[in-house]
Write a structure and sequence with these properties.
By secondary structure, this protein is mainly α. Helices cover 43% and strands 0% of the residues. It is built from 5 helices and no strands.
C-alpha cells in the first residue's frame, strides 16, 4: 500500500535505475525508496527536517542523502526523468506554492507615507517647546 504523496511502483521502477546500488557492507543501509519518500514528504509539507515522520527512518539520513544527491547531480536526474516524461504524456500536475516570506507587500501596506495625505505630526516634539 502506497501512502498519499509517496512513490508509486510505476514511479519507483523509473527512478531506481538512476540510483547507486544499495550497500551491503558496514552498517545497515536505509533503502532508497524510503529515503525518497521522506524527502518528498519534507518538500511537500515544507516542515523542518527534524519533523519527518519516523516511518521514513531517521531525518538525518534523508537530509544527508538529499544533500549528497544534490551535490553529485543525482537529484536533478531523478527530477528530469519524472518531470520530463510525465509532462510529455500529460500525467504531470503542476502545483505552485508561494511562501509568504518571499512576497513583498505594497509600500502602502508596509506603512509608507501615502501621497496626498498630511504627514503625521510628532506630538512629542511639540510638547518640548
Amino acid at each position: 500500500m502506497v501512502g498519499r504523496g509517496e512513490l508509486t511502483d510505476k514511479a519507483w521502477a523509473r527512478i531506481e535505475p538512476l540510483l547507486a546500488a544499495e550497500r551491503g557492507r558496514g552498517r545497515r543501509w536505509r533503502g532508497h525508496r524510503q529515503v525518497i519518500n521522506a524527502i518528498l514528504w519534507k518538500l511537500r509539507t515544507g516542515a523542518p527536517w527534524r519533523d519527518v515522520p519516523e516511518r521514513y527512518g531517521p531525518w538525518k539520513t534523508a537530509h544527508e542523502r538529499r544533500r549528497r544527491w544534490s551535490a553529485d547531480g543525482t537529484w536533478d536526474r531523478i527530477l528530469d526523468e519524472v518531470v520530463v516524461k510525465d509532462d510529455s504524456v500529460g500525467d504531470l500536475e503542476w502545483v505552485f506554492s508561494i511562501d509568504s516570506s518571499s512576497v513583498r507587500a505594497h509600500q502602502h501596506a508596509a506603512g509608507a507615507r501615502k501621497r496626498g495625505l498630511p504627514q503625521r505630526v510628532d506630538r512629542s516634539a511639540r510638547r518640548r517647546r
